Amino acid sequence: MRQGAHVALEAVGLVITVLAAQAMIRAVLNPDSEPLWGLLSGVPGGRTGQLILLGLIALAAMVSGGWAHTRKEPTAGRAGNSGRSHDRGTA
Q1: Phi and psi angles of residue 42, each rounded to the nearest 5 degrees, phi first
Q2: Where are the transmembrane segments (predicted)?
Q3: Residues 6+ apart with CB under 8 A from 42
Q4: Does residue 51 or residue 87 have the better pLDDT?
Q5: What is the pLDDT of residues 45-62, one digit of tens each?
Q6: Domain range holding 10?
């Protein structure tokens, strides 16, 4: 994958994680409302099944975003890394 694809996957993973986590928190704090405006009403298991599905969606998005973040090619070296070998040889 190109670096642009990794950046896009990381951004999409971040957005989906935030939205799913927010919907999950909102559903827990306000038990009278439907999570995601009733989009998950067909999920078996009732409210518990809906919250489990939202948690799995958030987890999958977080893992894919993290994977994309670790696969991006760095554009610059790490801080403090001059690119030289720091050998402490006696020669």
Answers
A1: -85, 0
A2: 7-29, 49-68
A3: none
A4: 51
A5: 988 898 899 999 999 999
A6: 3-71
